[in-house]
Write the structure tokens for this entry.
Amino acid sequence: MGNKNSTSSVKENPLPTSEQCNHQDASTSGEINTYEKLAERRSTPRSQTTFYKVMLVLNVAAWVGLVVALILFHYARPDFISGVQAYWGIKGDTSWSEDYVSAMTFMLLACLVLSLVSMLMRARRNRRQKDKFGVNLFVLLAIVAISLVTVATTLGLFPD
């Protein structure tokens, strides 16, 4: 069995057969795994996995949340009083709408959380050098962070 000068006809089989793998895996984990299943898992495109789809849904939800926050900003801000309106004495609302501001702040915080979760999931998923991380989440995070700071300073939430 060992040296090259022996004339025994014993064949060595370094790789276990499919039945041996099934028997070993079934005894340890309670489930049958084959080389075919493992190869199938590796050959599945990333875009077809559930993890990727969840990541994509979180990313889209965060961007949609930003659009909703922009719509809420439109309704929350005070009216612009032009010179013609001031001259003619037309009154306009010069205060922020509290309901819309609180809803906008909530949406911005939700966008921040969703983008951070999506970034964390993408960082856990991308392990190879050729995997791309994506810039859109960093852009979204920057926009949301700047918006939250601007809203907080405009409304006087930070003490001087």
Notes: The mean pLDDT is 76. The chain has six helices and no strands.
